[in-house]
């Protein structure tokens, strides 16, 4: 179609052209405004000749007409937006994958994600939720940057909501969370497969689903392999590099030949302590972490074997549950597996 037919084409010096309207399309296609509305909104319950529908669609494409989203929202009761309210995941490198996964999955199904990162500010959270409800979002994902129990904000009790990387103790909403127990078992099984039977576990001191779940998984793997659980091989420390460094000293007083660390930062501290002692990894001590925090795990020497937190899939699964494309378990929870990332901090089974 000639540019002269485009609204505002006679004023190319203008930096802002007015939006294309239904009337513009109707005039260019030689049909009524009602017919354009039927085609633009894909109304199949109204009879429009195929040839007419095709002609109107061509004009819509040529002119770049876009339906009034707010008007559609008022008409149908819900918009094509999905809200995501988060405490701090947008500013944490690996947990930000939750947003990425949710955004990709929403787009795949014709929705756009509206993101509010509240940094834990209760008032900002309240205002963000109110804004999303005013825009009649299809539903809301409520997410936290680490896996924990969380109280559902009062404003979200009016909405269709799925909690991501967190859960309601009172089961007020559906939840999507990582399988911490399976992750702990997978980490320990990797060490058992390498021939180790005296495996230490450096756990966190802070009570959380990860603390209890990973310990249970560690015990599950030992039991399945016929290895007796030895409580003296379980140590507790702060979940940072210094915590791992301090706990490493205790581990070295045992007869452990391998260590499963609660997270990759602890493993980094363990690496430091082993290096100071003149010990090599994995020859003298095999090590597995948790989180697959790329900036740490892939760049340690040797690169750290670890189990990943499935943040991308948590976000994607949250959208699928919200849209009714995936059903949670009977308790309202969707549990997402934690995948292993095996690198050079353990000896492969064939070489052990």
Automatic annotation (TrEMBL):
Give the UniProt keywords, A-Z.
Answer: DNA-binding, Repressor, Transcription, Transcription regulation
SUPFAM superfamilies in the cross-refs: lambda repressor-like DNA-binding domains, Periplasmic binding protein-like I
What SMART domains does the record tag this protein with?
HTH_LACI
InterPro entries assigned to the protein according to its UniProt record, in alphabetical order: HTH_LacI (IPR000843), Lambda_DNA-bd_dom_sf (IPR010982), Peripla_BP/Lac1_sug-bd_dom (IPR001761), Peripla_BP_I (IPR028082)
**Could you cite one Gene Ontology molecular function of this protein?**
transcription cis-regulatory region binding
PROSITE patterns, per database record: HTH_LACI_2 (PS50932)
Query: How is this protein named in the record?
Result: LacI family DNA-binding transcriptional regulator
Instruction: Please give the organism.
Output: Nocardioides cavernaquae
Which lineage is the organism of this entry classified under, starting from the top rank? Bacteria, Bacillati, Actinomycetota, Actinomycetes, Propionibacteriales
């Amino acid at each position: 179609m000639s540019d002269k037919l485009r609204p505002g084409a006679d004023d190319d010096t203008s930096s802002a052209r007015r939006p294309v309207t239904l009337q513009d399309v109707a005039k260019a296609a030689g049909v009524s405004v009602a017919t354009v509305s039927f085609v633009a909104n894909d109304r199949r319950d109204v009879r429009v000749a195929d040839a007419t529908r095709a002609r109107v669609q061509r004009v819509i494409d040529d002119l770049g007409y876009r339906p009034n989203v707010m008007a559609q929202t008022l008409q149908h009761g819900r918009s094509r937006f999905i809200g995501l309210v988060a405490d701090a995941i947008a500013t944490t490198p690996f947990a930000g994958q939750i947003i990425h996964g949710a955004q990709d999955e929403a787009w795949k199904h014709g929705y756009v994600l509206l993101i509010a990162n509240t940094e834990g500010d209760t008032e900002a959270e309240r205002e963000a939720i109110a804004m999303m409800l005013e825009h009649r979002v299809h539903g809301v994902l409520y997410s936290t940057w680490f896996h924990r129990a969380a109280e559902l904000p009062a404003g979200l009790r009016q909405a269709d909501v799925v909690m991501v990387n967190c859960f309601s103790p009172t089961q007020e909403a559906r939840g999507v969370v990582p399988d911490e127990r399976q992750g702990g078992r997978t980490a320990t099984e990797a060490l058992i497969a390498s021939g180790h039977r005296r495996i230490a576990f450096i756990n966190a001191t802070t009570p959380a689903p990860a603390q209890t779940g990973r310990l249970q998984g560690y015990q599950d793997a030992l039991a399945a392999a016929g290895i007796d659980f030895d409580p003296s091989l379980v140590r507790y420390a702060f979940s940072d590099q210094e915590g791992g460094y301090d706990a490493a000293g205790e581990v070295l007083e045992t007869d452990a030949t391998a260590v499963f660390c609660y997270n990759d930062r602890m493993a980094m501290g363990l690496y430091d302590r082993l290096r100071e002692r003149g010990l090599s990894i994995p020859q003298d001590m095999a090590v597995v972490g948790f989180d697959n925090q790329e900036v740490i795990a892939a760049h340690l020497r040797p690169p750290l074997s670890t189990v990943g937190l499935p943040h991308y899939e948590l976000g994607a699964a949250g959208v699928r549950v919200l849209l009714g494309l995936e059903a949670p378990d009977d308790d309202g929870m969707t549990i997402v597996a934690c995948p292993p990332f095996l690198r050079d901090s353990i000896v492969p089974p064939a070489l052990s």
